[in-house]
Write a structure and sequence with these properties.
The chain is α/β, with parallel strands linked by helices. The protein has 8 helices and 6 strands; from the N terminus they run αβαββαααβαβααβ.
């Protein structure tokens, strides 16, 4: 199940980050349901510098092996709007809440930083995994109004790290090495973003990262 695979990847990523002296706060570390608002509230309460939500893609037809990374923003893509509606169903946000939050966020520096974080993570995922699995498709960096990204007060992304609907990807995801490869690729993207920011002058500095 997606929840089991993403938790395993998250724990592996936490180990890599902690080895580099990041402070990591998990929204969950066992099989439990955490409401979307609670996830963002936790990140905000901890004063997190980054928020990374890990997901597995599902593309009908089972023929595409795609990776894509999202940051908060508008979209006219009907498939993405439908996906966001499904993801946001139990968020507790009303439509008016979304409009107010989005109007503020679109004008803020946080949106630009979220885009830079997404643009750092997406290519590292694609490059790292294509070395061994060249059939993976780069579906790019995209914007969508996911509730889990709306409520955060720090740069935030949602990474669809691979495609569970593809039979070969599902088989690979069952292997510890592939999950470790994904965690390593996420770590490389986060590290590259951190090193590029003036507020993170050295990777050895302790920082907080909240990750789902």
């Amino acid at each position: 199940a997606e929840k089991e695979v993403t938790l395993d990847i998250g724990i592996r990523l936490r180990q890599l980050l902690e080895q580099a002296t990041f402070e990591v706060v998990m929204t969950r570390d066992k099989d439990e349901t955490v409401p979307l608002r609670q996830r963002t509230s936790l990140a905000n309460a901890q004063g997190a510098d980054l928020f990374v939500s890990i997901h597995l893609n599902w593309i009908d037809g089972g023929q595409i092996r795609g990776i894509e990374t999202y940051y908060l923003g508008p979209t006219e893509d009907p498939m993405l709007l439908q996906l966001a509606a499904q993801e946001n169903r139990d968020s507790g946000y009303a439509l008016a809440d979304f409009r107010k939050l989005l109007d503020y966020i679109y004008l803020s520096v946080r949106r630009d930083e979220s885009r830079r974080l997404a643009e750092s993570v997406q290519p590292t995922l694609v490059t790292a995994l294509r070395r061994q699995y060249p059939a993976l498709a780069n579906r790019g960096v995209k914007t969508a109004p996911f509730a889990v990204l709306v409520g955060t007060e720090m740069p935030a992304i949602l990474a669809e790290v691979t495609c569970l609907s593809h039979p070969e990807e599902a088989r690979l995801l069952a292997t510890p090495q592939y999950r470790q490869d994904i965690a390593q690729a996420l770590w490389q993207g986060i590290r590259a973003y951190a090193q590029a920011l003036s507020r993170f002058p050295k990777i050895s500095q302790e920082r907080r990262l909240t990750h789902e």
